[in-house]
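Class prep. Sample record?

___
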Amino acid sequence: MTDNISTLIKEGKSKTIDFIASSENPHHIAALISSFANCEGGTLVIGVNSKGKLIGVLPELEIQLLEEVIQHYLSTQIQVEIEQVIEKFKVALLVRIPECDSKFCGAIDVNGEPHYFVRTAKGEVFESTFIIEKSWVYHQKDTFFSEEIFSALREVLLNENQLTLASIFKEIDAKKSDIENTLSILIEQKVIDFEFINQKVYYYWIRNS
């Protein structure tokens, strides 16, 4: 099903949607593709400027530039789907990028080194400092991610099958809000799960690192 560009623009950037005017900067395009592939995939709309206006593209040229980026500017080959959409007499491209299955996808810099990018729920793109596992990415620029809290939670969860929220607070010397933020991200990323037993919340690890 073809997406409506005007509707996508109205909804705005998110973890799974982003916009760009053209593919002229291969390093920028590679970073965007990397950010989608290292999270849960998404759609890059080409032909929309920074003000959210549909300006259109020359599809043949854009597809050629995209193919060059995919071939030469990514550390892992990604099979994207490209769809041409005509709206208001202008052509835009919908580039559907899948989540990277096994390896992380990096954007190659001028020195041939890969840089790994991730996305936040608001569609902000950051280079990751390190990647602990496929479903959990930490980077210093996002205040919702805490290396210290995650490391502590990870150790506790790996050593116990199940822990109540109260027992986690007891084990980890940290603010309740920080722990809850980290837990919510872990749940969203399907790293841990939880269930209610006798009116208590039990968390348990569902991913091997």
